[in-house]
Specification:
- With about 375 residues, the protein is an alpha/beta fold.
- Helix content is about 60%, strand content about 10%.
- It is built from 15 helices and 5 strands.
- It has helices at about 15-20, 40-45, 65-75, 90-100, 115-170, 175-195, 200-210, 225, 235-240, 245-255, 260-275, 295-310, 320-330, 335-345, 345-360; strands spanning about 5-10, 30-35, 50-55, 85, 105-110.
- The protein has a 5-stranded parallel sheet with strand order 2-1-3-4-5, sandwiched between helices.
- Strand 3 (about 50-55), helix 3 (about 65-75) and strand 4 form a beta-alpha-beta unit.
- Helix 2 (about 40-45) packs parallel to helix 3 (about 65-75), helix 6 (about 175-195) crosses helix 12 (about 295-310) and helix 10 (about 245-255) runs antiparallel to helix 11.
- The protein is elongated.
- The mean pLDDT is about 85.
Length: about 375
């Protein structure tokens, strides 16, 4: 292991000798470096990577001590390399200027060598302890991030697995919920940019997009004879289909332990309200306007668009432009004007995703 280094910066040879002599009993622990002016000091700093202390004079030729401090400040070195300013100036302004840069200590000449040595060793120890603590905290943060990532990936897997059960039962393409997440995320990005009044941020967008995968989880409870019927549903059958919204909420209530989280709220809102319509003609609760949670408003548009452009047992797929016009013209029910405005802005993004799906398996 390389020896720790102490840099002594002073244009007076006698001062360097005194400071050098202070650490002679510890030479097995420190490599002593010297510089006769500020310019030489910067060269030493740049060429060595194990300096644990700098003893810095103020008044020197070519470049003074404060110029060295300015260099260290600009390069963010003072928080890692403790620096003691040694000055013959006995003015408060000098001390204030030094501490404003972030020096560890200021010592005035003439000084007592044993005091300088003791303060130097204390400062080295203090900075090393702080560095070690920062390293431990950084490792802990990395471990926590890794754990959070693992938990999130596990949750994503469980959500995708659960939603895939619905897709297989309903004979859909197997990618419906995955596409809903992407459509939802796109719309929310536009909502965040053009409608800041909703208070969206990247974290909320991520949670809502992930929660959207569970929008149809309640279809698990719908009989195959209705869910897979290739023709038009009777009025009674459609009433049964409508119950998938409340069935989904019941599943969430029974299976989700911590129901106070924001993510659970989004899951519940989307499950229950993604078939509500702006004019109150949706289901199950006939909510209207902004009484419908924003998360459900956005997923409603994403869900209808994907249903239109995807083949189903009861219909062929519509082309992108036809599906787009059907939604804007109100043929699929009334939606939030703000969400529809973002849907118009996101037109090319939606079309591009659909075209990619047609060419490749969408991941």
């Amino acid at each position: 292991m390389d020896k720790q280094q102490i840099l002594i910066v002073d244009d007076e040879e006698v001062n360097r000798a005194i400071l050098h002599e202070m650490f002679k009993d510890a030479r097995e622990g420190y490599e002593l470096l010297e510089a006769t002016n500020g310019q030489d000091a910067i060269l030493q700093i740049e060429s060595h990577n194990n300096i644990v202390l700098i003893l810095l004079d103020v008044v020197m030729p070519i470049m003074d001590g404060f110029s060295v401090l300015q260099y260290m400040h600009e390069n963010h070195l003072l928080q890692d390399i403790p620096t003691i300013l040694i000055t013959s100036e006995d003015e408060l302004d000098t001390d204030d200027q030094a501490y404003s840069y972030g020096v560890a200590d200021v010592i005035h000449k003439p000084f007592y060598p044993h005091i300088v040595k003791r303060r130097s060793k204390n400062i080295i120890e203090l900075y090393q302890n702080r560095h070690n603590m920062e390293m431990r905290l950084r490792r802990q943060e990395e471990e926590i991030r890794a754990q959070v990532k693992e938990i999130r990936e596990t949750n994503e897997f469980m959500i995708d697995a659960l939603s895939s059960v619905v897709e297989f039962r309903s004979a859909e393409t197997g990618e419906h919920t995955r596409r809903i997440k992407y459509f939802t995320r796109i719309l929310l990005k536009y909502m965040m940019k053009y409608f800041p009044k909703y208070g969206l941020n990247n974290s909320k967008i991520d949670m809502i997009a992930r929660a959207s995968a569970l929008h149809d989880i309640g279809k698990i409870g719908i009989p195959d004879s209705i869910l897979l019927k290739p023709g038009k549903l009777t009025e009674d059958e459609f009433e049964v289909i409508k119950t998938h919204t409340t069935i989904g909420c019941s599943i969430l209530e029974r299976s989700y332990k911590n129901q106070s989280t924001e993510f659970y709220r989004y899951c519940y809102e989307i499950c229950r309200y993604h078939h509500e319509r702006w004019d109150g003609k949706g289901y199950p609760d006939h909510l209207s306007g902004d009484a419908i949670p924003l998360s459900a408003q956005v997923v409603a548009v994403a869900d209808v668009y994907d249903a239109l452009v995807s083949p189903r047992v009861y219909k062929e797929s519509y082309v992108n432009s036809t599906a787009y016009e059907m939604i804007l013209n109100g043929e699929c029910g009334q939606f939030s004007p703000d969400v529809l405005e973002c849907f118009e802005l996101a037109k090319e993004d939606f079309f591009n995703i659909v075209e990619v799906i047609k060419m490749f398996e969408f991941k």
